[in-house]
Amino acid sequence: MGKDVIIACDFDSAQKTFEFLDKFTGKKPFVKIGMELYYAEGPSIVKELKARGHKIFLDLKLHDIPNTVKKSMAVLSRLDVDMTNLHAGGTIRMMEAAIEGLTRPDGTRPLLIAVTQLTSTDEESMKKDLLIEKPIDEVVMHYAENAKKAGLDGVVCSPLEAGKVHARCGDGFVTVTPGVRFADGDVGDQKRVMTPLEAKKIGSDYIVVGRPITAAADPVAAYERCLNEFVG
Ligand code: C5P
User: Fold this and answer.
1) Residues of the chain where predicted confidence (pLDDT) is lower than 50
2) Most CB contacts within 10 A, which of 35, 73, 74, 127?
């Protein structure tokens, strides 16, 4: 598994996405398609980006009964994405069903990554809204272990948690970390951030970077800077 920078293409249309990616002449960054873009454009956006030569992380965070997740994952698998995800909160049984659905007849499948607790969920809302009393760190690690038990490849987590996840679940368990910012950049609405270099040192396998690249005056230079710090 290679370390890489994944650009979060948080756009609401294919046109805006292509305008953005056309700036990267000769380069084919690994891209993340989230709910906004997928719901706007449907499977065609995946097919078109794939045809242009991009690797794709389809970030749709599935969470439903095991049978529905299994059948939906089978559909997503046929889109030939490289990575997709679900909510670990859906239980081990749901995650196992997802793996079954995702696995193609030839035994191959995209990487499957679990969201543990969203970084927007804090301990107070876990207690008040969800009646989860345990400390958030413990919950995140428990969900990561559940994902491993179910046969998943890794988790989405904050870069601050990546080291602990590897310590608990092994170095081969993939960590995909958003919340990355340049040392001299805008933090925006992200609360717990790290630079690409810090994320590298702590052992993140993939960093997901949105606005520091998409909103940069020179997105290609910002992407190169990320790559140099994180991979280079
Ligand atoms: O623009 P920015 O770099 O903050 O984008 C981060 C991307 O990672 C967004 O697509 C966001 O939805 C996603 N993400 C996140 N925090 C999580 C899970 C996903 O920021 N816990």
Assistant:
1) none
2) 73
